[in-house]
Amino acid sequence: MPPRPAVELQRRGERRVERFLDVAIEVFNEKGYQGARLSDIVKRAGGSLSTLYRAFGDKEGLVHALMERSIRDFGQGLEELLQSPLPPAQALEDAACRMVEEILTPARIVSHRIFTAEGMSQPALRDWFHAHGIRPVEILLSDYFARETRAGRLAIDDPDAAADQFYMLVFGGLVIRSISGRVGGEHLPQAQARARSAVQLFLKGALPGR
């Protein structure tokens, strides 16, 4: 999927672009991808359609920019896991709490909603988000599990499979609940507590004596 058009904007114009993105998150979360119109965003954000088109090209380009920003924020929190000197139990809990916080941001929620709802009609957007917003997380987790296994702090035979299992166990249900509107940012403490519990279940298993 091509990036949004490169534009030369003055400082005021750059602020306007960020305002478009902030308002677009609100409008997409309220009306969905199909129901949202660019004119709705401009009306609420101010500015003009010509500025929006110049910055993003079209609605798909605007969504692409939203996803880019969400991915950047999400990745920054997770990269701290590879740099953590803490034991895996604590390091994974800390990383999970950071990821939960990002998953419950309006930008990530709208990205997940569009990814799931529009995947069939927007396959390029779907595949781009998976390649840049999901797969890198799995690779980073796999690298971490492999490193900690080599160091003797974990015992994982298949780091790739473990990364997928960890992601789905710790975050899969939260993503679904946030997409459906059952969970939002106001539930962050409960969601983080649940993530910490899921990390411990992943590490210790559910059988007695483990």
Automatic annotation (TrEMBL):
PROSITE patterns: HTH_TETR_2 (PS50977)
InterPro entries: Homeodomain-like_sf, HTH-type_TetR-like_transc_reg, HTH_TetR, Tet_transcr_reg_TetR-rel_C_sf, TetR_C_Proteobacteria
Record-annotated HTH tetR-type domain positions: 14-74
Record's keyword terms, sorted: DNA-binding
SUPFAM superfamilies tied to this protein: Homeodomain-like, Tetracyclin repressor-like, C-terminal domain
DNA-binding stretch(es), residue numbering of this chain: 37-56
TM segment ranges: none
Keyword DNA-binding: yes
Protein name: TetR/AcrR family transcriptional regulator
Species whose genome carries this gene: Stenotrophomonas mori
Biological classification of the source: Bacteria, Pseudomonadati, Pseudomonadota, Gammaproteobacteria, Lysobacterales
